Amino acid sequence: MKILTILILLVYNLFASNVGEMLFNGNCLACHNIKTEVSAPSMVEIRDVYLDIFPRKEDFVNFMTNWVYEPEEDTAFMPNAIDKYGLMPNLHYDQQMLEDISIYIFETDFSKID
User: Fold this and answer.
1) Residues 12 and 71: beta-carbon distance below 8 Å
2) Residues 74, 63: Cα–Cα separation, whole Å
3) pLDDT of residue 114
């Protein structure tokens, strides 16, 4: 029984550590390429801009979660991207999902991804 409990905890931790990446890959990459602009700014650019403004993880995650939950032009820090692509649409994702994605974005240096 102890081995089963340990195995369940290990699998849960492995899954939990990849939730943000899974959600990111399944949702964000449809518009946001990692390094190049296609139909929206690249993730390298987005992360660099917002990490510069919000260097603390808590602030970054809070802002990104809330802004993507309800995008508004007057609270965006990438006005040139809005001019070029338009305002990001409200995708109606729940806030926990957006928080998981925001944590993944904060923790991932996209410039090092091939």
Assistant:
1) no
2) 13
3) 77
Q: Take residue 21 and report the two structure tokens written for it.
A: 């990446």
pTM score? 0.83
Identity (one letter) of the amino acid at 46? I
Instruction: Indicate the length of the chain as a whole number.
Output: 114
Q: What are phi and psi of 75, to 5 degrees?
A: -110, 5
Enter the DSSP assignment of 73: G
Which tokens sit at 109? 């240096």
Q: Which residue has the tokens 């926990």?
A: 96
State the number of CA atoms in the 13 A half-sphere of 79 facing the CB: 2
* CATH 1.10.760.10 holds for 2-112: yes
Determine the distance from the C-alpha atom of residue 4 to the mean position of all C-alpha atoms in its chain, rounded to a whole number. 33
DSSP state at residue 87: P
Domain borders along the chain are 2-112
The one-letter code for the residue type at 56 is: R
Q: Is the pLDDT of residue 63 over 90?
A: yes
One-letter amino acid for residue 1 of the chain: M
Q: How far is CA 113 from CA 22, 99, 109, in A?
A: 16, 22, 7
